[in-house]
Structures are given as C-alpha cells and as structure tokens.
Amino acid sequence: MAGQIIIGGLAAGSLYALAALGLILIFKTSDIVNFAQGEMAMLITFISFTFLTVTKLPYFVSFLLSLVIAFIFGMAVERIFMRPVQKAPILNQIILTFGLYMVFRGVAGIIWGYTPVGFPEALPNKHFNYVGITITINQIFIFVVTTILMLGFYLFFKHTKIGLAMRASSQNIATAKLMGIGVSSVFTRTWGISAILGGIAGILIAPVTFLDPNMMGEVGIKAFAAAILGGFTSLPGAIVGGLLIGVFEGLIAGYVSSELKSVFVFALIILVLYVKPTGILGEKITKKV
Amino acid sequence: MLLELKKVTVSFGGLTAVNNLDLQVDEGMIFAIIGPNGAGKTTILNCISRFYTPCSGQISFKGENLLTKKTHKVLASGISRSFQNVELFSKMTVLDNLLVGLHPSLKSSLLSNAFKTKKNKQEEEAAKEIAFEILELFDLKHHANEEVRNLPFGIQKMIDIGRAIISKPKLLLLDEPVAGMNIEETKKNAELITRLRDEFGITILMIEHDMSLVMNISDRIAVMDFGKKIAEGTVTEVQNNPKVIEAYLGEVQEDVGT
Amino acid sequence: MKIKRLQILFISILLLGYPLLVGFSSYFIYVAGLFIIYAIMAMSLNLLTGFGGQISIGHAAFLAIGAYTTAILTLKLGLPFWLNLPLSGVITAIVGFLIGLPAVRLSGHFLAIATLAFGLAIPEIMLKWEGLTGGFAGLFIEKPSLFSSDTSFYYFTTVIALIITWLILNLLKGNFGRAFVAIRESEIAAEAMGVNVSLYKTLMFSISAFFTGIAGSLYAYFVGFISPHDFNMNISLIVLAMIVLGGLASITGSILGAFILTIIPQVADRFPGFTITITGAALILTILFLPNGLISLFNYKWKRKKTENKQLSLEG
C-alpha cells in the first residue's frame, strides 16, 4: 500500500512542484507572492476545456494553445495590475493579488457555472503493474512532463540571455538595471512563464479534481506549502517541497484520514513557517539596520 | 567610565566588520568615531543598541553587562539612539513620534488605556507636556500635529534626535546627525548637540563624516579603518597622528580646509 | 478627531432609530444586524492590519471560533448568555495569541500565507469534528431570553458595537495604539524606542481576535444557526475588502466598508459569482486608485472646508 501511495503522491507532488515553481519565480524576481496563481491556472484550464469541447480541437493542440494564452494572460496581468503597485507597500501588493483571486474566481463562475465537470486525461487510460504497484500511463506522462520542464528550466536559466537577466534581476534589481537589463520586461515575462507553469499543473490535475471555479483552492494552497517547505527562494527547493507535500498528503489520507489531509498540510505550513521560515533549501534573509 | 567596549569583534559570514575593538567613553563627553565608509562604525552603534550581538568581547554600560539585555530594554537602561537615514514613523504626527520615545516610561495598563481611566489621562497629559518641552527646545512647536513624512529632511533629522532624547537618556548614540544637511542646519545641530551635553548632561557617542563638525565639538575622537581602531585621542592628537593622516584625513584634507 | 466623533455620533443615532424607519421589518433588521457584526469584525481587523500593519487573511476563523464557542457553551454546558459572550471573546483571544506567536517571526507575504492556512484549516476541522460542532449540519442557537426578539437583540448588538468602538478608539489614542502604529511604520525604530515588538504583535493579534470573537458570539445568537461554511475564505476576504475599501487605518472607514459590503451580497448573491467578482473588483480598484479608501474622500473634503472657513474668518 505504501508504495502505491508514494507513486500517487509523487504524481500529485510533481504538479504542486510546477505550481510552486511559478510562485517562486515571481517571488524571486519581483518580491511579490502571487495569491491569484491558482485561480489563473483554473481560468487557463477552463480555456483549454473550451478548446476541447466547443471547438473540438485535439487534446494536445488545445493544451498547447491554452499555454500560449496563459503566457499572454500572465504578462497582461503583470502589465495592467502589478506594474502600478511595484513600489507600493507589500500590504497593497498582497491585497491586490487577493482582489485578482476573487475576480478570477467570480468571473469563471459567471461564465462556466459552478457545476463540476469531468476533464479528459492526457492519454487513453492504461496502467501497468510492477511488484504489486499500479502505475497509470497518465502518471508516467506527468513525470515525463515535469522532468522535461525542470531540465528545460535548468538549461534556460543557465544558458539563455533571458534566463541570465532573470537571475540577475532576482539577485539585485538596482544592479541589474545598471547593467542594462530591462527589469520591467523581465518581470512581465516572468509572470507569463509562471502562468504557463500554473496552467500545466491545472490542466494535468483537472481530471482528478474535476473542473470548477474552486478546483485550484486546495491545489493552490498545496503549491504554497511546497514553496514554503522548499524555502520560497530556491527552485530545486520547490521541486523537493512539491514531491514531499504530495507524498505527505497521500500518507495522511491513507493512514490517518482522507478528510483531514488538507488540515495536515495547513498545519505543516504553519509549523514550517514557525520553526524554520527558510524551509529546507531557502536562503537566510537578514534584516538590515 | 560610562560605556566600555572590550575586545569586541563582529563578523558577518566571513567578513569581519569590527575587529578586536576597545573603546571607553567617559561621562559628560562628546565622543566621535570617524573613519571611511565600511570601517565598521554603524556596526558598533548597532552592537551597543543591541541590534547585533558581537561574536566575542564585552560591552558594559554603567558597569553592567549590556549584552544580556534585549534590544527593547536598552532604552530603559539609559541608552538611546538616532538613525543614519531617519527611521521615523513617517505616517505619524511629530508629537506622536516623540511620544513613542517615552514608551518605556508610560506604565498604564491595556485596560486602563481601553477604558481611558483618570490615571491614563493624567499620564498622557504629562507625557504630552514633556513632548512639548522638547518641541520648544528644537523650535518645532508649530509642526507638532503634522505628519512627519510631509516635513523636510533637515527637520526630520531633528525630530529623530528629539525622539531619542525625550526619555532623558544618559548616553545618546548619533549616527551621522548632520548628513544631508546644509551649512546653516549643520551649525544649528552642532549647537544643539553641545547643549544636550552641557544642559542635559547627556553623554554623546557619534559617528560623523563632517570633519568641521567633528573637530569643533568633540572632546575625544576614535579613528576606525577596516574594522580596527587605528588612533584615539583629543582633536589635536588625532589631527597630528601620522597614521590617521595617511589612512584617512589625507584624502579629505581639502574638505577640511575649505 | 472631532470629525471622527461626529461621524460616529451620526452613525449611532441612525442605527438606534433604524428599526423605526424600516417599520421593524425582520429582513431589514437582519441585514442591519449583520452589518453591525461585520463592522465590529472589520474594526478589529483594521486594528491589526490597518493600524498594526500585520496582515490576516484568515480572520473569519476567529469569527468561527467565537460563534462556535458560544454555541457549544450554550448547547453542551448550558452556560448563560452573559457568560458566553465574554468567554467567546477570551477563548478566541487565546487562539489569537497562539496564532500571533509565529506571526512575530513572519512578515508580509509569509504572514499572509500562515493566516491563510489558519483560515482554511479551522472550517475544515469544524466540519470534521462532528461530535462537538455538528459538522456539516451545523448548530442552532436560541436567542437569550432577555433579548429574545430580533429587534431587541439588534439593539443589544448595537450597544455592544458602540462600546467596542469606544474601546478601540481609546486604545488607538494611547500608548498601545502608538506602539502598534510604530511597529507598522518601522520595527527597527520601535524596538529602539523600547517597544517589545514581539510582545506587541501577539498582543495585537489577541486584541483583534478578542473583539472578533465577541462578534462571532453575537453572530451565533443573532443569526441563530451556524455551520462551517458560514466562515469560509470568502468571508475573510470580504472583511479584508471592507477595511481596504472603507480605508486602512480608519475606524469610520471600517464601518463604511462593512456597510457597503454587507449590502452588496444581499443583492448580488442572487447571481452566482457576482458578489465575489464585485468585491474583488472593489479591492483592486481601491488599491490602484484610492489606496486610502473611500473615507479619504470624506475626510479630505471636510478638511478643505475647514481651512476654507478659517481663511474666510481671517479675512472677515
């Protein structure tokens, strides 16, 4: 049973890791925590669903098309809403992203209603048995997508000009500006990329959660848990954190109570913040007097 | 001896900001610490006001060990400070800023505050009176009810000092009290600092880059370079110390001349 | 200060005369009572967030704890109303203190995440803990015999709200209020001025939770039925929107915000998704275009008028 739980946990955890990665990218470059990340992902999942059902596009075409829209959507949100509060107090920034959270959720409800609908899996359902553990082809698909994305990100940051600019901006905005990096356009693109990551997580998790405006409520908070566990400043931390949260939640559901699994994740968040705010792999932030 | 630092060392990561520093400040003097940027001056103030804890060494005030005290207990023991870039409460009025400086001496309880008891009212009135005395001293009475953020930097610097002395400390730490001020304001502040020593009996430990101010009002000067004290003495002693001239004064001599 | 007093005097007269105005219509009294309860909660949250600078995204959880304390003490222990009301405040304050403890080490975004997790966890725990809370089915509470009608309990709620307003205003004016605002403005300077920042942060959480707990107790009696769903994330966000829309760090602003955002759902709830969209849009627009909230419009006009009058009298 434990092996089965771990496989399921790792699959869910990979998706939390993707969403967490999106959160951390934004936090690292612009010092903003995007509380609307999950709701943005939910909207993108709905858009993908519309492509699938209304225009009857094939799965992978609508998948890719909605990711293109995600990129534009993420950039638009940054340009229209976040740019004006870039220098405002943190409190205002937090409140603004919660405002977006509410509007996105409400608008999705108005357009698509609140009845949960099924969302198709990426690949036709098939599963394999190996030493008593069942693994589905979709879980394998999730692992493959996550791994490719992580590798892609690694190469992107290491070897491309934009990646370098993003890293520089996350270290020191003032210096990055002096070096001639267009910090604002880096911010904008970061939001676009982060929306893509959230979108992928949303589309891949929708078959499990079903699709409705509240679908990302729980997933979103687990992405936060993953990010916090990983230290909120570390990209590998997000991955480790996501996988751990996925397995942790699976174990709680399996051995304690499936209804209380979220409560345990919430408690874990508070505990980590209380005991070790820098998480497993985070950097220490020192207060300057 | 009022304040004594013994073999104090502070380091951040691998970087040693203050190295094996000995310092003694006697009561009633204006003691200046000078030195180029990054010499570790502000770090010393931050250790005395307990924002930092040195990795080794001792700091004692009035013979008591200061290092066992928590940051918020420092003021009550008689040490107050101003900040380099005025850390004022910018959306509060000038009066309220000063009143926060009296925080440790206001004793009325939460309930007595909430129900506005007679005792609480009297305490508040008394506190306001003290605040107005300070405003009078600084000639800032007409600004009492203005929000600090709407006032010019020079005035903010004075409020910062006012907030630091309202609790009548024994020792006042000033972190660049005239930085960013014009000649007129600098002169006014120099007068004020000497008055604080002479009339209020406050001992002053200050960091300052303005050499004319330092040379004019200090009783004793310590010179820092790369975390180490390279010289200490009276104004003339320091001015004639070849080490100082080489390390520090040489580069700003033109400034002093003008 | 004078403007604030006049505004509050005006509001209290209006509230006390209100049942007469609406001919004791039970629906209108229900909405007004709800407004008053939310106003208490908004003021408490504003004390913490607007004045103290400590964000809380899970404040509905405190409301829930206050409401459930009252319901459980009434139903399981049969305690009387005059004991339940303060006890609900005290127990919520204790929880607030415990939540405030980690808050000492967290700031900004991370405090938001921690309180968000707290706000999500409490309703889920209540849902699961059926033996105590009745789970999904909720609990029914009767009004105390002394104020058994809607109108009389409405009046009772109004009086409690006025007392709480007075207490909060007093607190803010004194040494504690100054220390709270000082922490918001600069923790470093506050610490240097002898404010025990950690202690005062937990204190802020406790005080805010205490009054919210009282609001929760009033809610349980006034509405007569509570279930975990009444205290979900949306309520926390709507109360946050109340203080932002009305005005951060303004007591009258909290009341104004509570008024507007209690009325809007009464109309908009008929269309699913509209309440949350409108509230969210109000949040965004306020932050972008009027960061000091609607109340700043009133106060600004008032101030300008006053200076104009002064000039006139000088010229005269």
Low-confidence stretches of chain B: 253-258
CATH homologous superfamily caption of chain B: P-loop containing nucleotide triphosphate hydrolases
List segments of chain C where confidence is low: pLDDT < 50 over at least 5 consecutive residues: 310-316
How does the helix and strand content of chain B classify structurally?
Answer: alpha/beta
SSE arrangement of chain B, N to C: EEEHEEEHHHHEHEHEEHH
Helix count from the secondary structure assignment of chain C: 14
Radius of gyration of chain C: 20 Å
Explain what you see.
Chain C: It is a multi-pass membrane protein. Chain C: The chain crosses the membrane at residues 27-48, 60-83, 89-122, 153-172, 203-225, 237-264, 276-300. Chain C: GO terms for molecular function: branched-chain amino acid transmembrane transporter activity. The complex is a heterotrimer of chains A (289), B (258) and C (316). By secondary structure, chain A is an all-alpha fold. Chain A has helices at residues 2-30, 37-53, 59-82, 90-112, 137-159, 161-171, 173-178, 183-209, 216-229, 235-255, 261-275; strands spanning 127-130, 133-136. Chain A has one domain (2-275): Orthogonal Bundle (ABC transporter involved in vitamin B12 uptake, BtuC), CATH 1.10.3470. In chain A, strand 1 and strand 2 (133-136) form a beta hairpin. The longest helix of chain A has 29 residues, at 2-30. The model of chain A is unreliable at 285-289 (pLDDT under 50). Chain B is an alpha/beta fold and 258 residues long. Chain B has one domain (3-249): P-loop containing nucleotide triphosphate hydrolases (Rossmann fold). Chain B has helices at 41-48, 94-100, 110-114, 118-138, 153-165, 183-200, 211-217, 235-240, 242-257; strands at 3-12, 15-25, 30-34, 56-61, 64-65, 79-81, 171-175, 203-207, 220-225, 228-233. In chain B, a hairpin with a 2-residue loop joins strand 9 and strand 10. In chain B, helix 2 (94-100) runs parallel beside helix 5 (153-165). Chain C has a two-stranded antiparallel ribbon. Chains in contact: A-B, A-C, B-C. Chains A and C meet through helix 4, helix 9 and helix 11 of A and helix 5, helix 11 and helix 13 of C.
